[in-house]
Specification:
CATH superfamily of chain B: Cytochrome c-like domain
Number of domains of chain A: 2
CATH topology of chain B: Cytochrome Bc1 Complex, Chain D, domain 2
Oligomer: heterodimer
Helix content of chain A: 10-25%
Strand content of chain B: under 5%
CATH topology of the largest domain in chain A: Sulfite Oxidase, Chain A, domain 2
Number of strands of chain B: 0
Helix content of chain B: 40-55%
CATH architecture of the largest domain in chain A: Alpha-Beta Complex
Number of strands of chain A: 25
CATH class of the largest domain in chain A: Alpha Beta
Mean pLDDT of chain B: 86
Radius of gyration of chain B: 13 Å
Distance between the termini of chain A: 17 Å
Low-confidence stretches of chain A: 1-23
Largest interface: A-B, 32 and 31 residues
Chain lengths: 406, 93
C-alpha cells in the first residue's frame, strides 16, 4: 500500500474527513482508525452536557443516550461525570431516597421482603468490585454493513469501583427455593406509552448468586448519578451492561424463564457464533442472549492520520478488558506482522480495565500502522475481521491507526 | 385519529425532553407530518442517527418494529408513507 492509499484508508476517504475535521465533527471514529459511524449519525451528534455530567457525545436526547469521549479512557477508572448514559425508555423518574425501596420476592423466594436504603446498608455486609460496564452495542456504529440501533462509537463503556451489597446476601434473607431458575430485575424507568414493554431483565440463578454480583449504590466513592441508576443498580461484573439494571425497584426469584421482549427478542446473538457462555434457560432455536463481554482494547494515545517526527518514539498507550478472566497480554505492532508485548499497568482486578503501554521507535520516514491486540487469561484474542451479527454486538476488531513518520 | 395521536405526543414529549431536542428538525418533504408521530416515544435524532444506510425495506422494518414490539400508536395505513419519507430523505445513498 502506498502512502496516499494508506492515508485514504486511515481517514475513510481523505476528502470527506478533511471536511469533517474542518467542521469539528464530534465523535468521529476515523481518528481512532476505525470505519466511520453512519454519516447521518456523525453529522447530527454534538457534545452536550446532561445535568451533573460533563459534555458527552450525544447520540439521542430522548431517551438519553450519550457516549464518553475517548480522552476519559486515559485513566483506568472512568469519572462519574463522564460515564456513558444509556436508556431504552423515555420515562426516567427522579427518585427520592425517602420514597425508594427495593421489593425482593418472587415465586421461588420463601418470603417477600422490602428494604429501604438504610436497611440495605445496615443489614448486609458491604461489598465492592472494580468492573467494566459496557453496552452490548458498544461500537455498533462501526459495523460494516451498518446495522440499525444506537450508532455507538467506542465510548459506550466505563470502568468504576462499584460498592453496595451482595445480591446473594439479600436473596438469602428472602430464602431461595430449590426450583429457582432466574432472578428478574425491574427498574423505575418505563416507556412513554403503556403498551411499550417495560425494561425488565433476568439473570441465571448461578450468576445472580455469584459473590461478584452486587446491588450497588456507590460508584467511585459517590452515590450513583441519576443517569447511571440512582439510587441502586445491579452490577454484574463480566456481563454486558444490559443486565446492570438501573434504578432497580424489584428483584424476583423465579422458577421459569423470563419471557418479556427485552429477554426473548432483544439482546440476542445467533447461536454458536461467539464462544461466550450460554444463558441456558433462555436459549432458543436460532439465537441466545448475549452474556459476557468479549476481549477488547482501545488505544488512547495515538490519532490515525497523525504525523510524527522521525526518531521520536510513539507512545502507544491504552486499556484492555474482557468478560472477567482478566488480561493476560496486550501486544502492539507497527507493521501488522511483528508484535511486541506491551507493559501492563496495575492490576485492578479481573473485571477492570487494564492499562497497557509500549514505546514504538520511528527509525525511518514512511507510514506505520499502529495496532494493539489483547488476549485474555482464557486465551481469547481480539479478531482481525468483524464477526457480524444482526443486532451489532461484540465488536472487538483490532484497531488500525495510521501514523506518518516525517 | 391523527389529531388524537398528536395531542398525546405533545403532552408526553416536553415533559421528558427539554428544549434541546426541539433543535432536531426533520427535512421538509411529503410525509414529514406522519413521520412526526415518532415523537410519541423518542426524539427525532434517532432518525438522523440511523441514516443513510437503510433502504425502504429497512425503514419499513424499523417502523413495524416500533408498532409491533413497542406499541407505537401509528395507524397501519401510515406505515408506507412514513417508510417512503424516511427512505427518500434519510435513506441509503
Amino acid at each position: 500500500m502506498d502512502r496516499r492509499t494508506i492515508l485514504k484508508v486511515a481517514a475513510g476517504t481523505l476528502g470527506v474527513a478533511g471536511v469533517r475535521n474542518a467542521l469539528g465533527a464530534v465523535g468521529s471514529m476515523a481518528d481512532l482508525g476505525f470505519a466511520e459511524i453512519p454519516d447521518g449519525a456523525l453529522a447530527e451528534q454534538v457534545l452536550h452536557a446532561l445535568p451533573g455530567k460533563v459534555p458527552l457525545i450525544r447520540k439521542s436526547y430522548r431517551p438519553p443516550n450519550y457516549e464518553t469521549p475517548v480522552e476519559y479512557f486515559r485513566t483506568p477508572l472512568t469519572p462519574n461525570r463522564a460515564f456513558f448514559v444509556r436508556w431504552h425508555l423515555a420515562a426516567i423518574p427522579q427518585v427520592a431516597l425517602k420514597d425508594w425501596s427495593l421489593a425482593v420476592g418472587g415465586e421461588s423466594a420463601e418470603r417477600p421482603l422490602n428494604f429501604t436504603m438504610n436497611e440495605l446498608k445496615n443489614e448486609f455486609k458491604p461489598a465492592q468490585v472494580t468492573a467494566v460496564c459496557q453496552c452490548s452495542g458498544n461500537r455498533r456504529g462501526l459495523f460494516e454493513p451498518h446495522v440499525a440501533g444506537v450508532e455507538w462509537g467506542v465510548g459506550a463503556m466505563g470502568n468504576a469501583v462499584w460498592r453496595g451489597v451482595r445480591l446473594k446476601d439479600v436473596l438469602a434473607k428472602a430464602g431461595v427455593k430449590g426450583d429457582a431458575l432466574e432472578v428478574v430485575f425491574d427498574g423505575a424507568d418505563h416507556g412513554a406509552l403503556d403498551k411499550t414493554p417495560d425494561f425488565v431483565k433476568s439473570l441465571p440463578i448461578d450468576v445472580a448468586l455469584s459473590d461478584n454480583t452486587l446491588i450497588a449504590f456507590e460508584m467511585n466513592g459517590l452515590p450513583l448519578p441519576h443517569w447511571n441508576g440512582f439510587p441502586a443498580r445491579i452490577v454484574v461484573p463480566g456481563w454486558t451492561g444490559t443486565y446492570w439494571v438501573k434504578g432497580v425497584t424489584s428483584v424476583k426469584v423465579m422458577p421459569r424463564p423470563e419471557k418479556n421482549f427485552w429477554m426473548s427478542a432483544a439482546y440476542r446473538l445467533p447461536r454458536g457464533r461467539f464462544k461466550t457462555p450460554s444463558f441456558k434457560s433462555q436459549v432458543a432455536e436460532a439465537n441466545e442472549p448475549i452474556t459476557t463481554m468479549v476481549v477488547n482494547s482501545l488505544i488512547t494515545s495515538v490519532k490515525s492520520g497523525q504525523q510524527v517526527a522521525r526518531g521520536k518514539p510513539i507512545e502507544v498507550r491504552g486499556i484492555a478488558w474482557d468478560g472477567g478472566t482478566g488480561i493476560a497480554k496486550v501486544e502492539v505492532s507497527s507493521d501488522g506482522s511483528n508484535w511486541a508485548a506491551a507493559k501492563l499497568g496495575k492490576d485492578l482486578g479481573r473485571f477492570s480495565f487494564r492499562e497497557f503501554a509500549l514505546t514504538v521507535p520511528t527509525r525511518e520516514a514512511g507510514s506505520l500502522v499502529v495496532m494493539a491486540r489483547a488476549t485474555s487469561n482464557s486465551g481469547e484474542t481480539q479478531v482481525n475481521d468483524l464477526i457480524h451479527n444482526p443486532a451489532g454486538y461484540h465488536h472487538n476488531v483490532i484497531q488500525r491507526l495510521y501514523v506518518e513518520v516525517v | 385519529m391523527r389529531a388524537a395521536v398528536f395531542s398525546v405526543l405533545f403532552l408526553v414529549a416536553p415533559a421528558q425532553a427539554g428544549a434541546q431536542e426541539d433543535k432536531v428538525v426533520l427535512k421538509d418533504a411529503p410525509g414529514r407530518d406522519k413521520a412526526m408521530q415518532c415523537l410519541a416515544c423518542h426524539s427525532l435524532d434517532y432518525i438522523q442517527m440511523n441514516s443513510r444506510f437503510l433502504d425502504k425495506a429497512g425503514w419499513m422494518t424499523s417502523v413495524n418494529k416500533m408498532i409491533n414490539a413497542f406499541g407505537a400508536p401509528i395507524p397501519k395505513e401510515d406505515v408506507d408513507a412514513i417508510a417512503t419519507y424516511l427512505s427518500e430523505n434519510y435513506g441509503k445513498k
